[in-house]
Design a protein that fits this description.
- By secondary structure, the chain is of the alpha+beta class.
- It is about 40% helix and about 25% strand.
- The protein has 18 helices and 22 strands.
- The protein has helices spanning about 10-25, 40-45, 65-75, 90-95, 105-115, 115-125, 140-150, 175-190, 250-265, 295-305, 310-315, 395-410, 420-425, 430, 440-455, 455-475, 480-485, 490-504, and strands at about 5, 25-35, 45-50, 75-80, 100, 155-160, 170, 195-200, 205-215, 220-235, 235-240, 270-280, 285-290, 335-340, 340-345, 350, 355, 355-360, 365-370, 375-380, 385-395, 410-415.
- The strands form six sheets. An eight-stranded antiparallel beta sheet has the order 13-12-9-10-11-14-21-19, sandwiched between helices. The chain has a five-stranded parallel beta sheet with strand order 3-2-1-4-5.
- Strand 2 (about 25-35), helix 2 (about 40-45) and strand 3 (about 45-50) form a beta-alpha-beta unit.
- Helix 4 runs antiparallel to helix 5 and helix 16 crosses helix 18 (about 490-504).
- The longest helix has 19 residues, at about 455-475.
- The protein is globular and about 60 Å long.
Length: about 500
Amino acid sequence: MFNKILIANRGEIAVRVIRACREMNISPVAVYSDADSRALHVRLADEAYRLGPAPSTESYLRIDRILDAAHQAGAEAIHPGYGFLAENAAFARAVEEAGLVFIGPNWQAIEALGDKTRAREIAIRANAPVVPGLTKPVTDVNELKRLAQEVGFPILLKAAAGGGGKGMRRVDSLDQLDAAFALARSEAESAFGNGAIYFEKLLERPRHIEIQVIGDRYGHIIHLGERECSLQRRHQKVIEECPSPLNDAELRHRMGQVAVSIAREAGYYNAGTVEFLVDQQRNFYFLEVNTRLQVEHPVTEMVTGVDLVREQIRIAAGERLDWQQEDIQWRGVAIECRICAEDPDNNFIPCPGTITRLRPPAGPGIRDDSGVFSGWSVPVFYDPLLGKLIAWGRTRTEAIDRLRRALDEYVLDGIGSTIPFYREILRDAEFIEGRLDTGFIERFLSRRSQNSTGLPTVVRQAALIAATLHYTDHSTQPSANSHQAAGDSAWKMHGRMMLLNSRL
């Protein structure tokens, strides 16, 4: 087993890995940017090394500086967490070539599965059902038009090297293709340095359900069941649960077998997630593979009792997976909310600032995975995720009740957060009844907007125009207390003006 591990990440996931290291008598080493010199993960680690200035391109994405820190510390392995370099094959390869152990899959599997079209090819070889579409990127828009007509509209353009909704465009008809293709290519090039685009048939109102897999270096691989991840906003998950309200033992078994087959076909080991779309008739289709630990991994841990981070470390150290498939039992239901520094009442604009008071909830069935503390200033440079609140119950109803109670207890002052938003969702009839699909949040926001104003759309638009004109008139004569009058910073005021303009 390792004596010392460097964690190449920040925030709650760095804290999560540090806790696993402590329980395994491994010394954890942190890295940090200038913006994170006082961060919780720095305080909890045995050692901490500065990477550079705040921008991630000068700190958490600098492979050379992370390797230097690992060598200085005498670390034997690097855990990438999620995000940043976690799915970067070049990083995994560099770690290996530096004589260190990458705590994750081999770089060849990351490279193969990171390319969405190659991943589709692997899935097809594993006899997995895939959504009708392309297995190769398309560069010519006329060829795209011909192929799209064969599959039928609507279709979804996707970035071959992408994720998180970047480079993704819905296309409902032939006359929309030229503009959508140009936009998707431009966005993919900007986000991933790769403008390759492919497309799939768009499924209407699907559920997004993923299967957790884990395997060792000796070819033993199992699945830990599914997570329901249909509640998404702009293709980013916001609430996840295990198991899915849709699945039963038979569907879980079939999806699990397919996920294991795909992982085996890719030569995969360590923890990973195979994602599927499930249609209204309960048919499931391969979507992609995430070659890392997922943000939502705690719900699987709470239901199965398997500590995924601990298993990741053991497998990376060359140990065999202790679990057989028949050992895995799914007990109860766990639901997770991602607590983010965002303002739900203002189109979820980020809310950086100082946390003046923090009192996380506790009590039966509650787990709080957090990377912040009272007095911490949330920086503007990174993802707004502050932590995750997870509730477990014997039934889905009990889990919802506990999560609702915990959200009501949660005190987070000084900045805006998504906590009030989740309090509303957990009281929504559709959510309580488990009627979930990837369009849920959009419908919920529409219902919420109508309920909050009670006014026709044209009246609300007129109010927005009046507010904009009022701001424009007054913005030419700034006063000393203009920021205080707005109740916010100039940065937030700018964000709100952008929001107003986007609605006009």
